[in-house]
Amino acid sequence: MGAVTPADRAPKQDRSRATRQRLLEAAVCCLAEHGWAGSTVSAVAERAGVSRGAAQHHFPTREDLFTAAVEYVAEQRSQALRELPVQGRAAVVHALVDLYTGPFFRAALQLWVAASNEPQLHARVTELEARVGRETHRIAVELLAADEQRPGVRETVQGLLDMARGLGLANLLTDDTARRERVVGEWALIIERTLE
Amino acid sequence: MGAVTPADRAPKQDRSRATRQRLLEAAVCCLAEHGWAGSTVSAVAERAGVSRGAAQHHFPTREDLFTAAVEYVAEQRSQALRELPVQGRAAVVHALVDLYTGPFFRAALQLWVAASNEPQLHARVTELEARVGRETHRIAVELLAADEQRPGVRETVQGLLDMARGLGLANLLTDDTARRERVVGEWALIIERTLE
């Protein structure tokens, strides 16, 4: 065998990145479906079709894996949100609420709630929540073309994101789509009037 | 020993009711602090200073105990809310949000999230959530003197309760009081303008 050349290394890095991504996606699904108590590195490795050793190479601890997974999906969602074609404030309100009603929110919620009882998760998830929260707020302000120099505008946008989070929670046990559509339709009008 | 007279029976019923109440209160604290995974009938019985046998006499299963506990506190909170002196809509908005930031909301959240992964809890908690949600909505409409005949008013009140739930979630890992006060201050004004 000859020396490892940069050309050999590149596909290896690609494979490693692909494995990491499969693990992160499997971790989010696992958390959303089974909660923190049912989410282990082994279960995720099996779901991703990766050996337990390889999973532990990427993520030494259970906490590493699941916080990285929630962060990964949060970044993907932020990216998707940033690329939204701007179609007016009402459409932005709907898109923001949609962030909180899929499997990602379910996974994040499981992690948040577990962190409230598990000291080894608490600091990491608190820091992650703050980071994701700031980023979502920043994107919301931009998409809504909200002028935060005006008194009350910052709090209006924050309250909207709190409402979106509450709507996500209301969708946890039952399909709340029909009610949510009516609520969001009305609140989109209120937000439009308030930010005018 | 003579026959059991009604006079003997009354204190026995009182004791039984007091035991039941101690168990329910201990169950809420246990759920709020340790989550569903850390909440067992034994742990609650010990906390309440009641024998495991007596606890099981009142609540045959773990599901019975914890759903009854969340329902009990929900009823207490509804009662307290109904007895609020009416001081205008802004004060009502603050009082509604307060419902979602204490140990009761923490306990309910743990139960809701556990129910999303535990089939034996799902149907009971879904039914409980619907009942508590309808009651809270009814009280909110009354306290806000909201005229649900007017288009959009029902959805405005629902969205406010969704926001309150989201604010509760934001208070789970850190003390969010300062930010929440600013958000609620602003949204109380928006609600006042919208319901005028």
Automatic annotation (TrEMBL), chains A, B:
This is TetR/AcrR family transcriptional regulator. The keyword DNA-binding applies. The keyword Oxidoreductase does not apply. PANTHER family: HTH-TYPE TRANSCRIPTIONAL REGULATOR PKSA (PTHR30055:SF226), HTH-TYPE TRANSCRIPTIONAL REGULATOR RUTR (PTHR30055). Residues 40-59 bind DNA. Keywords: DNA-binding. It comes from the Bacteria. GO terms for molecular function: DNA-binding transcription factor activity; transcription cis-regulatory region binding. It holds the Pfam family TetR_N. Residues 17-77 form the HTH tetR-type domain.
